[in-house]
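Question (not urgent): is this output format expected?
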Amino acid sequence: MLIKIHPSWYDKLSAEFEKPYFERLTTFVKNEYATRKCYPKGSQIFSAFDHCPFEKLKVVIIGQDPYHGFGQANGLCFSVNDGIPFPPSLINIFKEIETDLNKPFPKTGNLERWADQGVLLLNATLTVRESEAGSHQNQGWETFTDAVIEKISNEKQNVVFLLWGGFAKKKGAKIDRNNHHILETGHPSPLSANRGLWFGNRHFSKTNTYLKSIGKEEISW
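Got this back:
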């Protein structure tokens, strides 16, 4: 796996790329992509970083796994490529934006427009085998993305972390809450949302209110 990642992130994470776990991860991912159908496509594995340079980062959303259906994943958590039907979690995200900000449903589920404004859409695991959710877990990606979160926590100030569901909350346990703004709620999946744990969280307006309060430009959700 050739590490093609935005230079601002390469500078911050280059030490991780030299560690034994990442070398093992690289071997695993190369073999998987050579012998299986995997997502996202190789050039999009680090898309979350490429669209959101370290200096520009204002918000972090933590996901778990890339989508494992054909043509869905594009390297950004909860996001799908243009022209792909919205998965259930993304539908619930857009429903919440609709009620929170009175914005109509978008025509595309491609969230590059968020990432380009400084929203890091970070999956805990950056690759997956087709039709096999979780198939690339516990191979080293989680260690890498923990390092990413720790780097953000230690080297930036006043980042908004949106932690949706138990997995994201656990993943964000090491964030310095004295230096950053944490918003927590249930996961947008139907299982959680239908139990009243997602809708009404108003995370999108709350994020913008906070960004405005510290003199940063709001996100156009």
